Amino acid sequence: MSETDVHYDVHAVEEKWLPVWEKLDTFRADDDVVRSGGREKRYALTMFPYPSGDLHMGHAEVLALHDVIARYWRFRGYEVLNPMGWDSFGLPAENAAIRNDEHPATYTYANIETQLASMKRYGLSFDWSRRLHTSDPEYYRWTQWLFLKLREQGLAYRKNSPVNWCPNDQTVLANEQVVDGACERCGAEVTKRELTQWYFRTTAYAQELYDRLDDLQSAWIGKVVNAQRNWIGRSEGAHVTFEVEGHEPMTVFTTRPDTLWGATFMVVAADAALATELVSDDQRQALEDYLVDVRKETDIDRLATDRPKTGVFLGVHATNPVTGEQMPVWASDYVLADYGTGAIMAVPAHDQRDLDFARVMGLPVRRVVDTGEDNPEESGVATTGDGVYVNSGPLDGKSDKAAGISEAIAILERNGHGSGTINFRLRDWLLSRQRYWGAPIPIVHCPVDGEVPVPEDQLPVELPELRGADLKPKGTSPLGAATDWVNVACPACGGPATRDTDTMDTFVDSSWYFMRYVSPHDDTQAFDTELANAWGPIDLYIGGDEHAVLHLLYARFFTKALRDAGLLDWDEPFSAYLSQGKVINNGRKMSKSLGNGVNLGDQLAEFGVDAVRLTLVFASPPEDNIDWADVSPGGSVRFLQRAWRLSGDVTSAPGVDVSTGDVALRKITHKTVHEIAQLLESYRFNVVVARTMELVNATRKAIDSGCGPADPAVREATEAVAILLSLVAPYTAEEMWERLGHEPTVAQAAWPTVDPELLVDESVTAVVQIQGKVRARLEVSPGISESDLEAAALADPAVTKAIDGRQVRKVIVRAPKLVNIVV
RNA sequence: GCCCCGGUAGCCCAACGGCAGAGGCAAUGUGCUCAAACCACAUCCAGUGUGAGUUCGAAUCUCACCCGGGGCACCA
């Protein structure tokens, strides 16, 4: 056997097939077919990349996983929408532009071309005709249009409030972008600033965003559903209203209305407007002083759990609606301005935070639930569990918490002092950014007309040409410096006005890109509603866990908002969601400082595209991390060569009648194809590869020591291997397909038809257990009846010996596989 | 503190409540070779984190605990 028969050149086949595939353009999605319902659709989507340099191992993994399902669906006869694009607005381009004294577009579009070339080489089944970039004016025109659409619906608004501020990036951040008090991107300690900013009213959909998670539970990976649930943070409780002398009544949210009898004071968030409204003249200065201290705190300070409670008395009292008592109203930073109503009723006996505050300030503690534990007033430990109500009027003597809460709510509702309610932790989405490389907010501020939307026919509001040092962060938006751009005539009155100088959070761009893919070149609308309804929602979305709450939640919000705007008829964008694990090395995240980075380009050069893809898919279930030190791309190379070698051994002609082939091998082939289809449906891609390996092993054995290379069953098996392998290793598969005497491309081959008769064995092994331990095996027909199997088992000499004359008390029969005899 | 997910050979991972091992890596041996690589074949290896429970039968279901990973957290 010559060298060339044992190996193929992995790089030569890449060169060979790329232009062929390009020409065949196999993966173009046909809008007409789905529009007419001519074929069932599938929409496969992977989070589009940000163009920072070339692709890395993480991209390689998600792209490989994604391509398996996209190619599989195509084989199964679905019309598949499989687009790719770039999330190309963002800070790294801006920082590069400052560094290199150039325009952010230079860095951005150069990297896009690099990544595009890498993706093509990587052999992916994308429909490149739908490629989009969020930084193109043709795209962000519609981002701006959608912003205005949401504003029309009351879902985008401007307000002044303390916001998260990253002193390093010199921009505000959404709550979701603050992790442990630090900027998610650069790690700088986040501070607060009082600014007027744009928000999307995500809270308007809190209930629906939360409730629909139940439907996503089974088709989304559990931890992401859990993360969203925690982030939205639903709490059941009540609103309770307290009269305040000389003021409007104040309302609080509580999850424990049943402890209202134990409320002894009130606390208002110091930085809430309510505190300033309520404070008496005597106490005004004290509050001002306290606020100075509070504003100095960073989130990191606030997150410290056991720091001492501070606060000031506001000089007013509220009336407890059930006891009639006068309760002092305090301000403190332990109450959050933007959760609930920004004020609480304090029940120190049964809430540790309130108890801590009461003890520092010398406020009364009254126990209203006797849990059998020490009295909190003496112990300093609040009791939060179930117990018997005391000092609680109508609740006294009862002990069921749930019933107590319902009864308290009923009393409040009767008296007009409150009602049951559900509160969410979710906040509105702060979308203004004081940076350059994003979509400008299409609003003009006019001294006469106020906020005026830029008319639709004037969109897009294009970015002014700024570069290099113009973009240096200075705490206000760089766009403000482009005076020619900023100063415009008011669209409403024609008078002098100024443009909004902030740009949108880049998460806005990515909240609707999956809709744009259905009609990416349409210059009359954001997306074609009919096509969006035909293609959507996305049948499988794959991406990283880092977007578990950010992007996925925002995309869900946008989908609901656009549905309510009449632009879509689906409620949830992603029917199934799969998260990809990280590619790590030697137990650690890859990083420059650790020196353990693995370069994708180097891996591709060493092992070839197919082997790298196969390694990533085979290594573990998709959501698990892959430790590159634990896997063997060399092993993948060997396997692929072994599979390929089969195609050279087949001696029967293409189209040979396989029905006369070796039955044993045919059964293996059909069973494997059958099982792999099921595995693919549940995204168990690593097992798919393992099963393909088994088929290769079985075929090898048949050739060498079984039916021989001329048997039609060998051709059938090898063709099946080529088709199965094309999901993961398209170059090897294509090469096999050609050697098997077929025209390119294997991607257009018919998925092997499974013959149900070949899935059934003539005989199966039934195990006979006695007391759950295996004592004998019987070869039986798969159709054997339970009574026949039982009789056969009891007649078996090994079984009678094991029973040893003992009384048979019970026989469990699971024909045809198992008999268990209990003695 | 609350909520999710996981724990199976040296390693990565399989196993509708029914024989714990499919596949791969590593290791060892044999064949091929002048030799090595490649290739082929073979061998080796765990009783499923711990403890209870349910069951004829538990890696699988239930409970508690331990360990690891993730989400939320002064959220009332």
Automatic annotation (TrEMBL):
A motif ('KMSKS' region) lies at residues 589-593. InterPro entries: aa-tRNA-synth_I_CS, aa-tRNA-synth_Ia, Leu-tRNA-ligase, Leu_tRNA-synth_edit, M/V/L/I-tRNA-synth_anticd-bd, Rossmann-like_a/b/a_fold, tRNAsynth_Ia_anticodon-bd, Val/Leu/Ile-tRNA-synth_edit. It comes from the Bacteria. ATP binds at residue 592. Pfam families: Anticodon_1, tRNA-synt_1, tRNA-synt_1_2. Residues 666-785 form the Methionyl/Valyl/Leucyl/Isoleucyl-tRNA synthetase anticodon-binding domain. The keyword Aminoacyl-tRNA synthetase applies. It is found in: Cytoplasm. The keyword ATP-binding applies. Keywords: Aminoacyl-tRNA synthetase, ATP-binding, Cytoplasm, Ligase, Nucleotide-binding, Protein biosynthesis. Residues 229-403 form the Leucyl-tRNA synthetase editing domain. A motif ('HIGH' region) lies at residues 49-59. Residues 17-225, 427-626 form the Aminoacyl-tRNA synthetase class Ia domain. Transmembrane segments: none annotated. It catalyses: tRNA(Leu) + L-leucine + ATP = L-leucyl-tRNA(Leu) + AMP + diphosphate. One of its GO terms (molecular function) is leucine-tRNA ligase activity. Its EC number is 6.1.1.4. Belongs to the class-I aminoacyl-tRNA synthetase family. NCBIfam families: leuS_bact. This is Leucine--tRNA ligase. The lineage of its organism: Bacteria, Bacillati, Actinomycetota, Actinomycetes, Propionibacteriales.
